[in-house]
Amino acid sequence: MRMVRRATIREVALEAKVSTATVSRVINNSARVREDKRQRVLNAMQKLGFVTNRQASSLASGRSNIIGVLAAGLGSEYTGEIIRGIEAELAVHGFDMVVYTTQHTATKEARYVIGLAQGMVEGLLLISPRNLADYVQFLTEWKFPFALIDHEG
What is the spatial distance between Cα 70 and Cα 76, in angstroms, rounded to a whole number? Predict the structure, then answer.
């Protein structure tokens, strides 16, 4: 597979004859862009094959628009239905999700909760967590948004 170099925001700005700030506002769907400039930027993005760098956007905005979902496994229809519902609702609000499965392993679960809470996601949904008391205390102390789903089984 051949890797293609991605166009940069600066290259899009040069092509559209606008500032990089204007390109950023178009990417973020800001209302503060005249329609003619918006169209020039969108045309330049398409011509150059520009793809938004999610990491760069996340660093600039301080938001990832990603919610972490932690489940014991994906084998049950019940869990699958919960995850489908979560995904549908998050999409309505412009969020994506990342799903981690623990395979009922407490050490994996602990590692994932800590890792996700340290900045990869904006919130965490725990489906039937094993070490509930530990996570509630840890996430509460960190002031990290989370919700428990079916935590009593």
Answer: 14
Does the pLDDT at position 119 exceed 80? no
Estimate the crossing angle of helix 20-27 against helix 9-16, to 10 degrees.
110
Q: How confident is the model at residue 57 (pLDDT cuts 50, 70, 90)?
A: low
Check pLDDT > 70 for residue 62.
Answer: no
The token pair that represents 127 in the structure block: 């489906």
Distance from C-alpha of 42 to C-alpha of 142, rounded to nearest angstrom: 40
**102 CB contacts (<8 Å, ≥6 apart)?**
70, 71, 72, 73, 108, 109, 112, 130
Confidence of residue 59 (pLDDT cuts 50, 70, 90): low
Contact 56, 64 (CB under 8 A): no
Tokens representing residue 3 in the block: 């890797």
Question: Which run of H or of E encompasses 50?
Answer: none
Which helix (DSSP H) or strand (DSSP E) does residue 146 occupy?
Answer: strand 146-149
Pairing relation of β-strands 96-101 and 146-149?
unpaired
